[in-house]
Specification:
Distance between the termini: 14 Å
Number of strands: 0
Shape: globular
Structural class: mainly alpha
Strand content: under 5%
Oligomer: single chain
Helix content: 55-70%
Order of helices and strands: HHH
């Protein structure tokens, strides 16, 4: 998923408003980024994608 989304919306696809993510997805992404920063991890592409559950 990441590869395909990044090909269309660039690497930080989760921050691109044109990616069509709904408010629930955006809230989970924001929470993920906050948790990463809280735990002293960078909120970069690899960390954000690794931390997302994609609905699982």
């Amino acid at each position: 998923m990441n590869r395909e989304l990044a090909a269309v919306y660039r690497q930080a696809w989760y921050d691109n408003s044109r990616a069509g993510l709904d408010s629930g997805c955006l809230a989970r992404i924001d929470q993920t980024k906050r948790e990463l920063r809280k735990n002293k991890y960078p909120d970069d592409l690899s960390q954000v994608v690794a931390s997302l559950s994609f609905g699982l």
